[in-house]
Design brief:
The protein is α/β, with parallel strands linked by helices and about 450 residues long. It has 16 helices and ten strands. It folds into three domains: about 130 residues, no CATH class; about 120 residues, 3-Layer(aba) Sandwich (Rossmann fold), CATH 3.40.50.720; about 190 residues, no CATH class.
């Protein structure tokens, strides 16, 4: 909130100063400020807050590098100044085009220096409080061996704290080099410990543990909204996997929850909101037609609600147009097949053109889902998949979607084994996640819908 208020008042100050300079440059007697000044004064600060929000600046308010903050402020000020200058100010009657360049340079300089000054004060104050251990992040260390003790001692002995407030340790094996009173339990207690102690950071520090054990621990942590970090081993150092964020910190590998940078995540969310809103409006005749056909073709409700697992395995109610007979899963969950007798005649048509999925635009607007992302599964089948492929938990890192790379390449799955095959495509999507990949998936999805190859 401090950054938002600082950016807001910085933008107000920039507009007032720039307006005065602009009037002086083009030699007009325009005092007191007229209607245009007040209208643009109302628009200008919020336009900048929107741009800063899209850039991802507000996504992580406490873990900011002052150097990266300097460059991010510089580039967004440059880009924003270009956009706003052409949108708002390129209509002045000037004696020479050179005045336009001078006006732009002043606008950019004011925007950058005033914005950065406010941010620098806040970031410096926050950094000093973290370095002095006034503020910190509740941190859990997984491991109780020599590596766990070493990382704990290194973090505690640093003159400038990096914000790791070590709450305790979780034991993975019988080795225990740390104080016994600091051991909060075993790996089976991870849910209780993270919830009870409000854990924000987790450091995995095992002693020569097999890669499978490491992956098992990671798959457990993907259920929680925590920052995951690993102690680098020699192999990772040699291949260049260790990236330093600060010259004072103990080297740790950060395991990102989402492969997308913040600015892409924010644009993706904005795209979801805009497209879902327009889709629900433009497709309203189709919604009405589908509802009438469902009512005429079989008895029962229009919509089918089913609990699915979303990001961090959080359950949510997913909406679809009902394409099966009522109580099709009265006894236990079942997967559907191409010749499933439970599917109604109109339901078969809806599935062919993916019409049954369009109520999920409401799930997207609510924030439970995204337009593109791994398809969510029911807990019943998710547990079966994880028994055969524990790395399925990787998909909990991101929001599920209406369409996915797995749905495009593989389609509906009528067995757990086919779900496993489809999952491989979703894992591939996760590791290559970007706005460009999302666009490709959407294009292929539209092709499937228009050609009726949804089944």
């Amino acid at each position: 909130m401090k950054y938002v208020l600082s950016d807001f008042f910085s933008a107000v100050a920039v507009w007032v100063l720039f307006w005065a300079f602009r009037i002086w440059m083009i030699n007009t007697d325009y005092y007191p400020p007229g209607r245009d000044f007040w209208i643009l004064l109302c628009i200008y600060p919020f336009a900048w807050l929107f741009l800063h929000c899209l850039s991802g600046y507000y996504n992580e308010p406490f873990r900011k590098s002052r150097l990266s903050e300097f460059f991010s402020t510089f580039f967004i000020s440059l880009i924003g100044s270009i956009v706003l200058f052409f949108a708002m100010l390129l209509n002045d009657a000037v004696a020479s085009h050179r005045i336009y360049y001078e006006l732009f340079l002043v606008l950019f300089s004011l925007q950058f220096f005033i914005t950065y000054a406010g941010r620098y004060i806040i970031t410096r104050s926050t950094t000093l409080r973290i370095h002095s251990k006034q503020w910190g992040f509740n941190t859990l260390v997984i491991g109780t061996g020599e590596n766990a003790l070493k990382i704990s001692n290194q973090l505690d002995s640093m003159k400038l704290s990096q914000g790791y407030r070590i709450i305790g340790f979780l034991s993975v094996d019988e080795n225990c080099a740390v104080p016994t009173k600091s051991v909060l339990g075993s790996l089976s207690d991870i849910n209780k410990v993270i919830t009870e102690y409000g854990i924000e950071e987790v450091i995995i520090a095992l002693d020569n543990s097999p890669r499978d054990d490491m992956f098992h621990i990671l798959s457990l942590l993907y259920y929680y909204r925590v920052e995951i970090k690993l102690l680098p081993r020699l192999y990772e150092v040699l291949i260049g996997s260790v990236k330093m964020n600060t010259i004072y910190a103990t080297p740790l590998i950060t395991v990102s929850n989402c492969p997308m940078p913040y600015w892409q995540q924010n644009i993706k969310r904005l795209f979801d909101i805009v497209v879902s809103s327009f889709a629900m409006l433009l497709l309203s005749p189709l919604y009405l037609y589908a509802a009438i056909r469902i009512k005429l073709s079989s008895e029962g409700p229009i919509f089918f609600t089913q609990e699915r697992l979303g990001q961090y395995a959080a359950p949510f109610a997913m909406y679809k147009f009902r394409s099966m007979q009522v109580d099709a899963e009265k006894e236990y969950p079942l997967l559907s097949s191409l010749d499933d007798e439970r599917i109604t005649p109109w339901g078969r048509i809806m599935r062919k053109y993916r019409i049954d999925e369009i109520p999920q635009f409401w799930n997207v607007l609510k924030g439970d889902m995204s337009i593109v992302g791994p398809r969510p599964e029911r807990s019943f089948f998710a547990e079966q998949i994880k028994e055969k492929a524990p790395h399925y938990a990787l998909l909990y890192k991101v929001k599920p979607g209406i369409t996915s790379w797995g749905m495009v390449k593989f389609g509906y799955a009528d067995s757990v084994d086919k779900m496993l095959e489809r999952m491989e495509y979703d894992i591939l999507y996760l590791e290559n996640m970007s706005l460009f990949v999302d666009l490709k998936i959407l294009i292929y999805t539209i092709k499937i819908i228009t050609t009726g190859k949804g089944i």
